[in-house]
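Long-time lurker. I teach an intro course on protein structure, and each term I like to show students one example going from raw sequence to a predicted 3D structure in token notation. This year I'd like something fresh instead of my usual example. Would anyone be willing to generate the tokens for the chain below so I can use it in lecture? Attribution to the forum is fine with me.
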Amino acid sequence: MSTSNADVATEHASRYLQQLCKHWAHKFPVTFDPKHGEIELTIGRTIMDADATALHIALTAGDAAQMEQLERVVEDHIKRFAFREELIFSWQRPAA
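-- Reply from a regular --
Happy to contribute to a lecture. Here you go:
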């Protein structure tokens, strides 16, 4: 299993968390509230927590290739929702 984390600075973390969860709820198992969301995609699991200053994202995937894809998909979707601000994603993977 591969894991990756990112803390994305934004005052709109709860909004983006809810938008992403609602967006994927018709296709994947999703649970969420304004502060916490979980999405079970076919390529991996996304867990998000929102606070007043950041969106905290934790990803789990089967292998490195799936992790790269999951990071890209999650990041691209959130950036589309946040078109009015520039978000920086610094994905961190633990050393093997």
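Some talking points for your students: The first strand starts at residue 2 and ends at 9. The radius of gyration is 12 Å.
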